[in-house]
Specification:
By secondary structure, the chain is mainly alpha-helical. The chain contains 23 helices and no strands. About 0% of the residues have low confidence. It is a multi-pass membrane protein.
Length: about 550
C-alpha cells in the first residue's frame, strides 16, 4: 500500500485534536483515585481490592483490539469518519456511568458500574490513540503523542484536585453524619463531596470529546482504500453487532464451564481468586480453539460466517503473530511497569491511612465490627462511636490526600510532557524513557517513609515526570515500527500489553499481599517501586532500527 503524504498541522490543530483526551482522562483519574476508596467505603477489604478491579484489564484486553480492528476497516462520513464514531460513543457511555457511580447503594452495584465505565473508556481510548497517528506525519508524531500526554496530565490533575478541594469545601464533620442513625448505611456510604467530582467528570468526558469531533476532520480514504473497505465489510454484520457477537462468543463458554466447575467444587466459590484464574485459563484455551477452527476451515459456510463475526479477534491474533521484535521487548517492560502502576492506584490510599494517619489493620477491623453491629441495630457505646467517627474522618482525609498527590503528579505531567520532546530528540527516546522509569521507582520506594502530607508531594514530582514519559514516548516509538494500514489493531495490541499485566495483578496480588506482604499497604507500595526499577533495566533493550 502506498503511504499517504500527510500535511503538517499547526499547534492549535494538534491541540484541538487532543482536547477530547482531557475528558477521557478525567474519567480515568477518578477511577485511579476514587473508585478503590469507594469500594472501601462500601465494605471491601485490602485483599479484595485487586480482584474488584478486574473490569479494567478484561475490558481493555477485549474491547480495545476489537475496536481497533473494526475502526481500521470503517469509514462512516455520516458519523464522523473512521475513529470519531467510536470515541464519541465511548464518551457518552462513560459520562452516563460517572453520573450514576456515586449513587451506588452496595458494593456489587459499584463493581458492575465499573465494568460498564471501563468498557466506555476503552471504546474511546484505542481509536483516539490511532486517530493521532492517522492525522500526523512521522516528524510530528512525538509532538502529537506528547500533546496527548499533556491532556492526560490535565484531565487526571483536575479529577484529583477536585477530590482534594471538594473534601475541604463540602465535607461534613463525622460527628454530624449520624453513623448509627436510621440511615445506618451512611456508615459506609460514599461521602457527598465525592459526588461533585463525578458530576464534573461526566460533563468533561462528553464535552471535550464533542469539541475534538467538531474541530478535527479525519483524513478520508483514497478511492482504492474505500473500495477495499467496502469489499471487506460486504456481508459482515454492523460494527455494534460484531462487537456484541465477539463478546458473547468469547464469554459464554468460559463462564458457563466455570459455573459448572464451581458447582462441582463448591470451595472454589469461596476462593474467588482461584475461580477467576480457572475461568481465564478456560477463556484463553477457548479463544485458541476458535482461532484454529476458523483458520483451518475457511471454505465451510458456517465456519466462514463465524469467522466474519469474529474477524476483529482473528485479525488481532494474526497481527500478534507478525508483531515486530521491538513490541515483544516493550511487552516485557510493560509487564513490570503496569503491574506496579495498578498496585499504586489500588493501595496508595490504604498506605496513607496507615503511614500518614495511623490507621492500622486492627483499627480497620474494629471499625468494621462497630459498623456491622450498628447496622444490626445494636447499641454502640460512646467510646466506640467516637472511635468509628474518627476512623471515618481520617479515611476521608486519606482519600483527599490521595487526590492532592495524584493531582500533583499529573500537574507535573502536564507541565513537562511537551518539554520531553526536545530532550528526547537530543538524547534519544529510549534514554528518556529509561531514566523516567527509574525516577518513578525511586518515588514509590520513598513514599511510605514520609510522614508529612506536604513533603509527600516531592516524590510525586518524580512520579509525574515518569508518567509523562510513559503516556507519550512509547507510543511515538511504536508508531515508527508498525504498518501504517494496521495502526488501529496494533495500537489495540499495545493496550493488550498494558491490560495483561493488570489482569495478572488483579488475580495474583490479593494472595500476595495477604500471604507474603503481611496484608500491609505500605509493603504493597514498596513492592511496586521494585517493579518499576526492574522495568527501567528492561527498557535499556528498546532499540529502533534505522530502516
Amino acid at each position: 500500500m502506498i503511504k499517504i503524504t500527510k500535511p503538517r498541522l499547526n499547534f492549535w490543530q494538534i491541540w484541538n485534536m487532543n482536547v477530547g483526551f482531557f475528558g477521557i482522562q478525567f474519567s480515568f483519574g477518578l477511577q485511579q483515585t476514587a473508585v478503590n476508596p469507594i469500594f472501601s467505603f462500601l465494605g471491601a477489604h485490602h485483599d479484595e481490592l485487586p480482584l474488584l478491579n478486574l473490569a479494567g484489564p478484561v475490558t481493555g484486553l477485549l474491547i480495545q483490539p476489537i475496536i481497533g480492528a473494526i475502526s481500521d476497516r470503517t469509514w462512516s462520513p455520516k458519523w464522523g469518519g473512521r475513529r470519531k464514531p467510536f470515541f464519541l460513543i465511548g464518551a457518552i457511555l462513560a459520562s452516563l456511568c460517572l453520573f450514576a457511580f456515586p449513587f451506588s447503594p452496595e458494593l456489587w452495584f459499584a463493581v458492575g458500574l465499573l465494568w460498564i465505565l471501563d468498557a466506555g473508556n476503552n471504546t474511546a481510548m484505542e481509536p483516539y490513540r490511532a486517530f493521532v497517528g492517522d492525522k500526523l506525519p512521522d516528524e510530528q508524531l512525538t509532538f502529537g503523542y506528547q500533546m496527548q500526554s499533556l491532556f492526560v496530565g490535565a484531565g487526571i490533575t483536575l479529577a484529583n484536585f477536585s477530590l482534594f478541594l471538594f473534601q475541604d469545601w463540602f465535607s461534613v464533620p463525622a460527628e454530624a453524619t449520624g453513623l448509627c442513625s436510621t440511615g445506618a448505611e451512611a456508615v459506609t456510604s460514599i461521602p457527598k463531596w465525592v459526588y461533585y467530582s463525578f458530576f464534573l467528570g461526566a460533563i468533561a468526558s462528553i464535552g471535550t470529546v464533542m469539541w475534538s469531533v467538531w474541530k478535527t476532520p479525519e483524513i478520508p480514504p483514497s478511492d482504492e482504500e474505500l473500495e477495499e473497505i467496502t469489499e471487506f465489510n460486504k456481508g459482515k454484520p454492523a460494527p455494534l453487532i460484531q462487537i456484541l457477537s465477539v463478546l458473547l462468543v468469547i464469554f459464554s463458554v468460559p463462564v458457563a464451564l466455570g459455573y459448572v466447575i464451581g458447582k462441582m467444587v463448591p470451595s472454589l466459590f469461596e476462593d474467588i481468586n482461584l475461580w477467576v484464574i480457572i475461568v481465564l485459563i478456560i477463556a484463553f484455551l477457548w479463544l485458541f480453539i476458535l482461532y484454529r477452527i476458523i483458520k483451518k476451515n475457511p471454505d465451510k459456510p458456517a465456519i466462514k460466517k463465524l469467522g466474519d463475526v469474529l474477524n476483529p479477534f482473528v485479525e488481532a491474533a494474526e497481527a500478534i503473530g507478525e508483531m515486530p521484535g521491538f513490541l515483544w521487548k516493550l511487552a516485557a517492560v510493560y509487564f513490570f511497569q503496569w503491574y506496579a502502576l495498578f498496585v499504586y492506584w489500588q493501595f496508595i490510599t490504604p498506605m496513607l491511612r496507615n503511614s500518614l494517619y495511623g490507621i492500622s489493620n486492627s483499627d480497620n477491623e474494629k471499625f468494621e465490627g462497630i459498623m456491622e453491629a450498628c447496622k444490626e441495630g445494636a447499641v454502640i457505646g460512646a467510646e466506640d462511636m467516637a472511635f468509628a467517627q474518627n476512623v471515618q474522618s481520617l479515611a476521608e482525609q486519606a482519600l483527599a490526600q490521595t487526590g492532592l498527590m495524584n493531582g500533583t503528579y499529573n500537574l507535573v505531567t502536564m507541565l513537562v510532557a511537551l518539554a520531553l520532546v526536545p530532550i528526547a530528540s537530543r538524547i534519544g527516546s529510549k534514554l528518556v524513557y529509561v531514566l523516567c522509569l527509574f525516577l518513578t521507582g525511586i518515588a514509590m520506594l520513598s513514599m511510605p517513609y514520609i510522614s508529612n502530607q506536604w513533603l509527600l508531594l516531592a516524590p510525586m514530582v518524580l512520579f509525574g515526570i515518569g508518567w509523562a514519559a510513559m503516556m507519550g514516548i512509547p507510543y511515538a516509538m511504536v508508531s515508527k515500527v508498525i504498518p501504517e494500514e494496521r495502526r488501529g489493531v496494533y495500537m489495540g495490541i499495545v493496550n493488550m500489553m498494558i491490560v495483561i499485566p493488570m489482569l495478572i495483578q488483579t488475580v495474583s496480588f490479593g494472595p500476595i499481599i495477604k500471604n507474603v506482604l503481611d496484608n500491609n499497604a505500605v509493603n504493597a507500595i514498596v513492592f511496586g517501586g521494585v517493579f518499576f526499577v526492574i522495568a527501567g533495566f528492561l527498557a535499556m533493550r528498546l532499540n529502533i532500527s534505522k530502516d
